[in-house]
Amino acid sequence: MAAGTAVGAWVLVLSLWGAVVGAQNITARIGEPLVLKCKGAPKKPPQRLEWKLNTGRTEAWKVLSPQGGGPWDSVARVLPNGSLFLPAVGIQDEGIFRCQAMNRNGKETKSNYRVRVYQIPGKPEIVDSASELTAGVPNKVVEESRRSRKRPCEQEVGTCVSEGSYPAGTLSWHLDGKPLVPNEKGVSVKEQTRRHPETGLFTLQSELMVTPARGGDPRPTFSCSFSPGLPRH
């Protein structure tokens, strides 16, 4: 990495997330286990309860009972206390989970959950960074691309890359620790989002180009950060 370009900062707002079981909206990290409580169900057999799932793995409502068994046990199974256990949640597990149970007194109770998942990406990195920025003097990248989309005095700082996020999230650029706003004061950003066809995770790219001011620091410090996308509840 060239001098003057800082390693991408890793900014995560984890307080927005958390697999807090018991609420209607549940958010869980991909690959982690998840337990959903069946409210009002007897804590041990005999039990009268039924779980229904409508997720990316099902074409319609899938019914699971305490008896269990079969291939679904590796995806989701009912525990002895009536809770539903998912050993490793994935993107296909996003959807609706419902439990209907009868307690010892014959009272019927229902539990409804909407499950969404997330994945934290790897640390963002700045690649193809410029070595120096000088007002009025195009760097090599701009000189080669002058006939394309860049303006004559616009210089490319580099490309920030973040891999493995879900939902996609966003990348932001900073100059000396202060946020840069695209399309303001000579700042332009070209963004690209790709989704892996097998894992469903996202790769983000953000290419920063600036028009340096005369008399400014020829070796400013740029950094980029990742902000998570909010699950779609």
From TrEMBL:
Residues of the signal peptide: 1-23
Main location: membrane
Keywords from the named record: Cell membrane, Cell projection, Disulfide bond, DNA damage, DNA repair, DNA replication, DNA-binding, Endosome, Glycoprotein, Immunoglobulin domain, Inflammatory response, Membrane, Nucleus, Phagocytosis, Phosphoprotein, Receptor, Repeat, RNA-binding, Secreted, Signal, Transmembrane, Transmembrane helix, Ubl conjugation
Span list, region Disordered: 212-233
One GO CC term, this protein: cell junction
Record Gene3D superfamilies: Immunoglobulins
PROSITE patterns recorded: IG_LIKE
Topology with respect to the bilayer: Single-pass type I membrane protein
The organism's place on the tree of life at top rank: Eukaryota
Listed Pfam families: C2-set_2, Ig_2
Ig-like domain mapped to chain residues: 31-116, 124-233
PANTHER family recorded: ADVANCED GLYCOSYLATION END PRODUCT-SPECIFIC RECEPTOR (PTHR11973:SF20), CELL SURFACE GLYCOPROTEIN MUC18-RELATED (PTHR11973)
The protein, known as: Advanced glycosylation end product-specific receptor
Record organism: Homo sapiens (Human)
